[in-house]
Design brief:
The complex is a heterodimer of chains A (441) and B (293).
Chain A (H helix, E strand, L loop, with lengths): L1 H14 L11 E7 L3 H17 L3 E7 L3 H13 L6 E5 L3 H5 L5 E2 L1 H8 L10 H6 L10 E13 H6 L9 H14 L4 E5 L2 H12 L6 H4 L13 H15 L21 E7 L3 H7 L4 E4 L16 E9 L6 H14 L2 H11 L6 H9 L2 H4 L5 H7 L15 H16 L5 H22 L3
Parallel strand pairs in A: 1-2, 1-3, 6-7
Antiparallel strand pairs in A: 3-9, 4-9, 5-7, 5-8, 5-9
Chain B lengths: L10 H28 L2 E3 L6 E3 L3 H8 L1 H32 L6 H9 L6 H12 L5 H8 L10 H29 L3 H9 L4 H12 L1 H17 L2 H7 L11 H11 L3 H29 L3
Antiparallel strand pairs in B: 1-2
Helix pairs in contact in B: 1-13, 2-13, 3-7, 3-10, 5-7, 5-11, 7-10, 8-9, 10-13, 12-13
Classes of the chains: A alpha/beta (441), B mainly alpha (293).
């Protein structure tokens, strides 16, 4: 690959005669990402700007399908000895990547070797914590982070005579009953990413660990604690909403993504990055607010956790220092306040750095777009505790699916909440034990 | 009466076989060999730490109630896909075999679905079955049937069976039609002269004469239902709700590619490989006996 591009470069230089080959000598690095549609176009725009901003490096960004496809593709490429320099990996792949030892180059090491000075403190705490090691050093580069929000249809609320947007689950239930009585929308409420919203976010907000050992940050011997009374209470609450026709299960992952923007459901829980889609598709007035909490469990809710993806630097036998320097330069570029603020404002992801948040504030972005800062507020309203800094569970994709499967059996009426949590806990712990065994050094 | 060609040199026949052998080695023997090797290992996703575990991956599979459940689901699923795809195709072929106007156009239209990629076909079926946007889904909910294949396991299974069978009808149709056209008219005419009704002619003359085709299609359809329905399931239900539509092949995919557990996924692939070898062996044994080329 490398040799071929050199040959092509040489041929080109010969063809145009004695022209200086400076443009040909850029160090090229590849970047695989998993954002389709409009978000993918934004990624390309930013990469293009980076390539134009200097003449030493060139980043070649390619869309490689879904997050899962990017990750498995990058791992397969690493095994074959030819991985991309940068791979975008979703947050639940973090533990797998961190355990990969020689396959990855931690970002703090990359910066040190390339002589790039970046203070980790410039990143938002909720973002930084998720991608740092136990010593607080960045392992992967924050890229696109979102948080879960509650989206409400204000027209439907008005129709049902609801004036205040609910803040607690108790108020959500009261509003839902009014919405149903007024028959304001065909469906009262739904959620996308059921495990992320109903388990991960809620456990962080209520300061209850999803798993022991600080949600896996402190070691591979972590164990899920899904049978904790809090999950009993919360999932029973959701199951009761479902039984009473106030909650619709719209499918796994993002399958319910259209139910809120289309006006089908009056309340939707989902990623803050859905903002662009909702802005485009919703034919009604809407608002986005932080997730509700149980006020009989916690009076001042803690910070929520992020979702989204980060950028990982992959190693290979023939990598040169210049290539790593190119990657470091690109990471430094996307962390600049003006770049980061642009990314935040056009995509709906939260800003990665405090400076970009301040800049967006100063520009009046949140006055023009009310609710666009709900995710940031939710992420930074409290100092993260070991229960709310994030999750580092091996095989977390599988664990998420296990929880969704057991939840589906509850909604089908095949098992009780207690049975579901017990089964999910047992199966999920098996995944953790397998991961621990496979990654024991 | 086997014909035997004698080549003057020994090299030539092997040279002629070489391209096929090369393709088979690269695309079958090497990956299959690797799958067998991996099925005895336990690895992390990157293959950095590898441990030889013998038959442990297989033992875990046999002891996993969810694996046995997905075996049962696969059998139910394959039975219905095969039964539906073959009976519908046979009916259509019998109708198309008559002298009707526009027969060519009719036949061409019936062959179309075969040219559609499974994922695209699944999207078409989403527009039919989806409880909120699908034509049939909305209709069913409108008349009071609680249709939601995202939450009802039986409905999910029906959805993937129908979508998978539909895809295979064209293929079966082609073979049945060819089979019907190769039945000598004289036999049918003789039966007609003897006073057999159309239904009786079909069941006593046509159907037995079609049996080689039927048997061939049975094996092909079972293989299809076992191994090629991945795209439909992935696009429509992702194996859910709960595990209601997780077939063996879908589970092997999920464990290997999404859950990154190559050891278990390889063990499952080996089990599937044995199944397909068994199916092929059965097919050759019977077809050798029954079909005259």
């Amino acid at each position: 690959m490398h040799r071929r591009s050199l040959l092509a470069g040489a041929a080109f230089a010969l063809a145009i005669g004695a022209a200086p080959a400076s443009a040909q000598q850029r160090t090229e690095v590849t970047f695989w990402y998993g954002l389709g549609g409009a978000l993918g176009e934004r990624v390309q725009e930013q990469v293009e700007r980076f390539n134009r901003s200097q003449d030493r490096y060139r980043v070649n960004a390619t869309f490689r399908g879904s997050y899962v496809e990017v990750m498995t593709g990058a791992i397969a490429a690493w095994r074959a000895g030819n991985p991309p320099h940068i791979a975008q990996v979703f947050e639940v792949g973090t533990a797998t990547m961190m355990a990969a030892g020689p396959a990855i180059k931690p970002v703090h090491e990359l910066f040190r070797e390339a002589g790039v000075e970046i203070d980790p403190k410039r990143y938002l705490a909720g973002v930084r914590g998720y991608y740092s090691d136990t010593q607080g050093r960045l392992v992967s580069m924050p890229h696109n982070s979102s948080s879960a929000l509650m989206w409400v249809n204000l027209d439907a609320f008005e129709k049902a005579g609801i004036t205040d947007i609910p803040r607690t689950w108790r108020e959500v239930r009261a509003a839902a009953e009014k919405l149903k009585a007024a028959n304001a929308t065909p469906c009262v409420m739904t959620t996308t990413w059921p495990t992320w919203v109903l388990f991960e976010q809620q456990s962080a907000i209520h300061d209850v660990g999803l798993a022991t050992r600080a949600n896996g940050f402190e070691g591979l011997d972590t164990e899920l604690q899904l049978t904790h009374p809090f999950f009993q209470k919360h999932i029973q609450f959701i199951a009761d909403l479902h039984r009473d026709g106030l909650f619709r299960y719209g499918g796994r992952d993002n399958a319910a993504g259209n139910l809120f923007p289309s006006g089908e459901c009056a309340i939707g829980f989902g990623s803050s990055a859905a903002r662009a889609q909702i802005q485009r598709d919703a034919k009604f007035r809407w608002a986005s607010v932080p997730l509700p909490y149980h006020d009989d469990v916690i009076q001042s809710p803690r910070n929520g956790v992020i979702g989204g993806a980060s950028l990982w630097v992959l190693t290979a036998r023939n990598r040169t220092p210049a290539e790593y320097a190119a990657v470091a330069a690109f990471f430094e570029f996307i962390s600049r306040p003006e770049e980061d603020a642009w990314w935040h404002q056009v995509t709906g992801y939260v800003p990665l750095t405090k400076a970009a948040y301040e800049k967006s504030k100063a520009e009046g972005f949140y006055e023009r777009n009310p609710g666009a800062d709900a995710a940031i507020i939710q992420l930074s309203r409290a100092e993260p505790t070991p229960n709310s800094q994030g999750f580092r569970l091996g095989g977390m994709v599988e664990i998420r699916n296990i929880i969704q499967e057991e939840l589906e059996k509850v909604f089908q009426g095949q098992q009780t909440v207690a049975q579901a949590l017990e089964a999910a806990n047992r199966r999920g712990n098996q995944v953790l034990r397998n991961f621990e065994r496979a990654n024991r050094s | 009466m086997r014909k035997k060609v004698i080549f003057p040199q020994i090299g030539l026949p092997y040279l002629l076989l070489l391209p096929q052998l090369a393709i088979t080695s690269v695309f079958f023997f090497l990956p299959a060999g690797q799958a067998i090797w991996f099925s005895f290992l336990r690895q992390d996703a990157f293959g950095i730490r590898t441990e030889f575990v013998g038959f442990e991956n297989f033992v875990e599979l046999v002891q996993d109630p969810l694996y046995l459940e997905s075996l049962w689901i696969t059998l139910v699923f394959s039975f219905w896909v095969t039964a539906l795809a073959m009976s519908v195709a046979l009916g259509l072929a019998v109708l198309a075999d008559r002298h009707i106007r526009g027969a060519t156009a009719y036949k061409t239209l019936l062959i179309w679905p075969y040219a559609i990629a499974p994922a695209v076909a699944a999207v078409l079926w989403i527009f039919i079955f989806h409880p909120q946007v699908g034509l049939l889904g909305r209709f069913l909910n409108g008349i009071g049937v609680a249709w939601d294949y995202k939450l009802n396991g039986t409905q999910a299974l029906i959805t993937v069976v129908v979508a998978s069978a539909w895809k295979q009808v064209s293929y079966n149709f082609l073979f049945f039609l060819a089979g019907l056209q190769s039945i000598p008219r004289s036999v049918l005419e003789a039966a007609a002269i003897d006073g057999a009704s159309p239904a009786r002619r079909f069941w006593t003359v046509v159907f037995p004469l079609l049996s080689p085709t039927t048997f061939f299609l049975l094996v092909i359809n079972l293989t299809y239902a076992f191994f090629d329905t991945f795209g439909v399931i992935d696009a429509l239900t992702k194996g859910g709700p709960a595990k209601a539509t997780t077939t063996l092949i879908y589970r092997a995919y999920i464990d290997g590619r999404v859950n990154l557990d190559l050891g278990s996924s390889s063990a499952q692939s080996v089990v599937l490989m044995l199944a397909v070898i068994a199916l092929t062996a059965v097919q050759f044994r019977f077809i050798e006996r029954k079909v005259h080329y």
